[in-house]
Amino acid sequence: xxxxxxxxxxxxxxxxxxxxxxxxxxxxxxxxxxxxxxxxxxxxxxxxxxxxxxxxxxxxxxxxxxxxxxxxxxxxxxxxxxxxxxxxxxxxxxxxxxxxxxxxxxxxxxxxxxxxxxxxxxxxxxxxxxxxxxxxxxxxxxxxxxxxxxxxxxxxxxxxxxxxxxxxxxxxxxxxxxxxxxxxxxxxxxxxxxxxxxxxxxxxxxxxxxxxxxxxxxxxxxxxxxxxxxxxxxxxxxxxxxxxxxxxxxxxxxxxxxxxxxxxxxxxxxxxxx
Length: 274
Description:
The chain is an all-alpha fold and 274 residues long.
């Protein structure tokens, strides 16, 4: 593997990553402050803000040295990054209800536009549990059972695209399963538990195949691959248990909503994250 983290571009890249994460944190906190000022009675939960900052902190651990440097040359580091970026950070970010915060702080016309996009057919298709499961978990087979992983790791741009995929697909799956933000195509709790169970089973099978060396195409020492498989197996189990706990904690009796119900001030009407 190319050890990108050890070249001269590592420091500027780390600084830029840190600045982006700080900027996102600042934007969220400013939006939360604006939401509290707009509606002091409804306010905005400090727990939501703390959850968002926790998610960004996990991303910082994954994307900054020393882990970022190790991940380019050590499969165990890569798998740790995978867990943090694709499972742990997304859950914390999703529980912060970012869409609800955006809709509460935008002007009414812009909030209606955002709500319309979120209810559009492409968004509804993307947010279907089957699509979220395929993008977050189904792609792991293509990554580790084909030469794709080795090709991606050979180029810095490919590695960053892989990070972006892990984060986006992880956030999508966490949102579909246990997100407090409204989701027009989210099924009932029992259906979501079925999809979560499928994700758990697929993760376990891929990790076991990786540990046993079956069909895995990863150019790394055997001990690194096996230990990376253990990280995926046990780390994935913990993350999915946390996701199941979040599903139970965020469950509310289902209420039928229409796009029009999202248009009332301050942005949406149900459910109301607190």
